[in-house]
Amino acid sequence: MPYDIIGDVHGFAAPLEKLLAKLGYVEINGTYAHPQGNKACFMGDLIDRGPDQRRVIEIVRNMMDADNALCIMGNHEFNAVCYATQKADNAYVRPHSDKNFKQHEAFLKDYPLGSPAHAEIIDWFKTLPVFLDLEGFAAIHACWDEPHLQMLKPSLNAENCLTDAAYLAYADQTSDTYQAVECLLKGPELDLPNGVSYTAADGSERSVARVKWWADPDKDVNKRLFIRAKDLDASTKDAINQLSIKDTFNAHAQDKPVFIGHYWMSGTPKLLSDKLACLDYSAVHSGVQVGYRFRGEATLKPENFI
Ligand SMILES: [Mn+2]
Questions:
Q1: How far is ligand 1, taken at its centre, from the CA of residue 76, in Å?
Q2: Are strands 276-278 and 39-42 parallel, antiparallel or unpaired?
């Protein structure tokens, strides 16, 4: 079965519909379908940021209902469920802080908290699987890591969706659920040495850096972190080079191709390895939605990016 893998959408309908058209999908009876029966496979993060929250969800959901698409859960759908979930003490699993509200504002404008439409869509998010492990390929939002997938097993139902209990367990940062979700949906991060921080793209000071978990462990540690070199002074670079993250996150051990989203790549889409492709080229900044035409190949081909 031909699959068209599609990266993070983040509420931008126009680039998504442009990509679907380019991939040969046509809108029939209110849903996109492919004349050859191709299926689209979305990498999660449908929501937040963009102006078309409802339209994006409508497109993807209608395709899924017509059996024309699959979609996994992104960290933004996960966060949306946590933002809507109250613990026994009535506090929300994801606190309603200014920062968390701002990140979720575009979605809450279209789906006001407490409205029936909001409750309904949160229930739908809960039906998105954390990963897909199909015959020819696997997919997960941020990081394919076997130990953390095993760790998350007790938190998943038979369809690989998080259970209601798992969202509550996540509130405890010492739980396996918390650790596994952080790694699989948000990607491994590295605490920088004491006092070391950098200025992130959004202007905030951060002391935790995202790890390029697929990068060669023997590479300079600086090349394994998502920190732009210009953000680091020499002493920071030295401090990071003292860290050992060598054996922490090796590339996935699977023998089939894995697709991910999440990482705000830029430039011309490139494979991360011949078994790993990231489809997130940040529709937010580039205005372009990236896809990959998967035709069952065991070794991925850069020319299949769309
Ligand atoms: Mn993401």
A1: 6
A2: unpaired
Residue 233 Cα to ligand 1 middle (Å) = 28
Ligand 1 centroid from CA 156, angstroms: 20
Burial annotation 35-64 (CB, 10 A radius, 16+ → b, else e):
eeebbbbbbbbbbbbbebbbbbbebbbbbb
Structure tokens at 178: 């918390």
| Domains annotated on the chain, with CATH | 3-79+109-146+249-304 (3.60.21.10), 190-242 (no CATH)
Distance of CA 29 from the midpoint of ligand 1 (Å): 31
Examine the pLDDT at 252 and tell me if it is beyond 90.
Answer: no
**Separation of 46 CA from ligand 1 center, angstroms?**
9
Q: What is the pLDDT of residues 131-176, one digit of tens each?
A: 999 999 999 999 998 889 999 999 999 999 999 999 999 999 999 9
